[in-house]
Amino acid sequence: MIKEEEVYKIGKFHRPHGIKGELLFTFTDAIFDKVEGGYLVCSMDGILVPFFIKAYRFRSDTTALIKLEDVDSEEKARLFTNAEVFFPKKFIDEKASPEIVSWNHFTGFRVKDITHGDLGKVTGVDDTTINVLFKIEKDRKEILLPAHEKFILKIDQKKRWLTVQIPEGLLE
């Protein structure tokens, strides 16, 4: 059984496209095209279920048409309408940089600053502005930290830690 902490959200299926089972997919992260994984995970009736990708083609930088194995009709594809889509974290390379990995991947990671120590746990990502921000919670307080690769010194995928060096005065 796939657990929530083993995946991170990369998008959502919308409606079927055509009659052969293709699905319109809106994504926030094209990681499925950047690393070898072979499958996506969908939330179906509250359960995370893996589905192997048979083929896909991009329509824009945020949408694609995806064909899943054994989904070969419009009726079968309709079952995926509005399903959230996740990517397994285990396929992400230990050396992957934030340029490759979605900022959303770091949800659940603890953040440690080399000066200030443990800053808390990443609870989400705010990408509504030009500067993407990590939402970090510690002791019921929220810290907004710029999600920028120049601040990240080390990524520990196994222990789920980010070691950062944030500019002086940013926490005040």
SSE order and pairing:
Blueprint: E1 7-17, E2 22-27, H1 31-34, E3 39-44, E4 47-58, E5 63-68, H2 74-78, E6 84-88, E7 110-113, E8 117-126, E9 133-138, E10 141-146, E11 152-156, E12 161-164
Parallel strand pairs: 7-12
Antiparallel strand pairs: 1-2, 1-6, 2-5, 3-4, 3-6, 4-5, 7-8, 8-9, 9-10, 11-12
Short descriptors:
172 residues; elongated; 2 helices; 6-stranded mixed beta sheet; 6-stranded antiparallel β-barrel
Provide a quick synopsis of the model.
The protein has helices at 31-34, 74-78, and strands spanning 7-17, 22-27, 39-44, 47-58, 63-68, 84-88, 110-113, 117-126, 133-138, 141-146, 152-156, 161-164. The protein is mainly β. A hairpin with a 2-residue loop joins β9 and β10.
Describe it for me?
By secondary structure, the chain is mainly beta. The chain is 5% helix and 47% strand. It has 2 helices and 12 strands, in the order E-E-H-E-E-E-H-E-E-E-E-E-E-E. Strand 8 and strand 9 form a beta hairpin. The longest helix is centred in the middle third of the chain and has 5 residues, at 74-78. The radius of gyration is 18 Å and the shape is elongated.
Overall mean confidence score, pLDDT: 87
Beta strand count: 12
Low-confidence stretches: none
The structural class is mainly beta
Described by the principal axes of the CA atoms, the overall outline is elongated
Count, helices: 2
- Element order: H for helix, E for strand: EEHEEEHEEEEEEE
The spatial strand order of the largest sheet comes to 1-2-5-4-3-6
- Biggest sheet: strands, sense, closure? 6 strands, antiparallel, barrel
Which bin fits the share of residues in helices? under 10%
Q: What radius of gyration results from the CA coordinates?
A: 18 Å
Distance between the termini: 43 Å
